[in-house]
Design a protein that fits this description.
Elements lengths: L1 E7 L2 H13 L6 E5 L6 H12 L13 E11 L10 E11 L6 H6 L10 E6 L13 E6 L6 E7 L4 H5 L5
Parallel strand pairs: 2-5, 2-6, 4-5
Antiparallel strand pairs: 1-7, 3-4, 6-7
The structure holds adenosine-5'-diphosphate (ADP) and magnesium ion.
Adenosine-5'-diphosphate binds next to helix 1 and helix 2.
Length: 171
């Protein structure tokens, strides 16, 4: 079990928190954004995209359901096969908004599960409908608060492996 808590006083602070999260994400990660309409899920997702190094501006994928963004190449020195021990790997940010789905079968049909790949970071707004497909080690970000209220942001996972990467993200 992993858990951190953060409070945000503005959309900019929420995006900054998302950016710090994005900087710490890697291929294969699945981030679930929960909270009511207007809680700040998309604001946080915009920050995640920035933190990952996405150059395009992330927009709400409500009509497309799934939107992919190329992440700038990054070096991975752990692969010994590359030149000078450095391999350029390309990852993709997959931003989903499942608000319009009502049945798990729909999530299956649009291929939610097929995006859970080592070269993709998935960020999913309204993930509840896809519950049965979600990986055990997914990270959940729950946002509470509306209007001009301060947002309470709880970040947690069943997988304590997140502690090493995100333990100090709220500091
Ligand atoms: N602290 C805050 N964090 C995020 N959004 C906030 C905050 N305070 C006010 N807002 C407003 O709340 C709305 C959040 O919208 P959005 O990110 O699209 O929500 P969601 O994707 O959860 O429906 C925006 O209009 C934003 O300006
Ligand atoms: Mg949204």
């Amino acid at each position: 079990m992993f858990e951190v808590y953060f409070e945000s006083d503005s959309p900019a602070q929420t995006a900054e928190f998302g950016q710090k999260l994005g900087e710490r994400l890697q291929g294969g990660d699945v981030v679930l954004l929960k909270g009511d309409l207007g809680a700040g899920k998309t604001a946080l997702a915009k920050g995640i995209a920035k933190g990952l190094g996405v150059e395009q501006t992330l927009t709400s994928p409500t009509f497309t359901l799934i939107q992919e963004y190329p992440v700038r190449q990054y070096s991975d020195k752990t692969d010994p096969l590359g030149e000078n021990g450095i391999v350029q790997k390309k990852i993709t940010l997959v931003h989903m908004d499942l608000y319009r789905l009502h049945h798990p079968e729909e999530a299956e049909v649009i291929g939610v599960e097929e995006h859970f790949q080592p070269d993709k970071v998935c960020v999913i707004e309204w993930p509840e409908v896809a519950e049965e497909f979600l990986p055990e080690d997914a990270l959940t970000v729950e946002l509470a608060g509306s209007g001009d209220e301060r947002r309470r942001i709880l970040v947690f996972s069943r997988d304590s492996g997140w502690e090493a990467r995100l333990g100090t993200i709220n500091k």
